Amino acid sequence: MHREVVERRGWLAERQFTDALNFCMLLPGPEALQLAIYLGWRLHGIRGGLVAGLAFIGPAVLLLFLLSWLYASYGSLPAAAGLLLGLKAAVVALVLQALVKIGRRALKGPLHVGLAVAAFVALQFLGVPFPLIVLAAGIVGVAMAWHAPHPGPSGHPAVRAGPSAARVLAVGLVLWLVPFVAVLGTLGADSPWSRLYLFFTQAALVTFGGAYAVLGYVTQHLVVDLGWLTAQQSVAGLALAETTPGPLVIVLQFMGFMSGWNNPTPLDPLAAALLGGLLASWATFLPSFVFIFLGAPRLERVTREPRVAAALAAITAAVVGIIATLGVLLARVVLLPEGLAGGVRWPALVLASAVWLALTRTRLDLPWILAAAAAAGLGLQAAGLA
Predict the structure, then answer these.
(1) Residue 232: inside a domain, yes or no?
(2) 28 found inside a domain
(3) Are 319 and 208 in contact (CB under 8 A)?
(4) What's the pLDDT score for residue 47?
(5) Domain total for the chain?
(6) Which residues, 6 or more positions from 17, have their beta carbon under 8 angstroms from its beta carbon?
């Protein structure tokens, strides 16, 4: 986006693009989608933001629905199992790489290291809810910067005016209520789809740190607390989401799809899965549009507030610990599928190590690395080594 929007087309200046990216990083949800919405809004208002955002996620939504159906219908076949072995092993390496990269950027001192360790312990061993961890980290950050001076105006030209906050909130609330009321009226308040819609809405509001952070939270709830899908299915979903364009948080659509597929009553499995996936996507992506249309006209004031920056830094540090819990989950599911007593699944470990080396030692693009991992997994399965 930077190359096209700033360097090639000149639609935004470098500072404007950087400020927009910083603003999107302050918000819960996928910052890449939010940046696309902002760029569309900056150029053509609400209509531009809607077109840019929908075009950004549309291909990923459609492709992941297809991949989800193929996985649910044929994922147990030997060929599919081999492909998934390679992709799951690649995901282990990808999460490890994300943990290292975010850790280097976020852990700037003893306080941030302490927040990361505390978040890991709280989520992994104490069962503290993910939203409370994010809230506590943000409060710590604000407290540490409470006496920071407020900077004056930057002198940059103001961004375009937008609709009133009340109007944006009202429209967003109506768009959120329509599917919820429809599900309540047809399937009931206690149906899995009503509960799923509320849960994914809650998850969308606390997804600081991107897909890797929120996936650990969603997996804990859907796999451990509710039993709507398995840990293996969760890891497979992340592997499939890595192969699609668009934001990685699209993995939540897969989680919704499989929740419906595994618990279809009283619907047909495919209908239940499609409904679950659609509700998950709607609840996940709708807030991003609302946040941008609310905050974009106020971008400069928000990004220049030192307390907001301190809160974000603290939350990002806590996210390092949260992503570490996802790494533990992946290692258990992919590398130790039968627990410590069953030993290490060596083919998966070898593949994960190879992907890690490719990510850190070569300049290969991620799609090529994923394709090679999938092919290697297929070869191991065919050779009877998987």
Answers:
(1) yes
(2) no
(3) yes
(4) 95
(5) 1
(6) 2, 5, 6
CA gap 66, 233 in Å, rounded: 16
Residue with tokens 């192969």: 243
pLDDT of residue 132: 87
Residue 289 near residue 295, CB atoms below 8 Å: no
The reply to whether 200 falls in a domain is yes
* Cβ-contact 138, 311 below 8 angstroms: yes
In one letter, which amino acid is 3? R
Which residues in the chain show pLDDT less than 50? none
Asked whether residue 59 is domain-assigned, the answer is no
Tokens coding 129: 């809810």
Domain that holds residue 287: 67-382
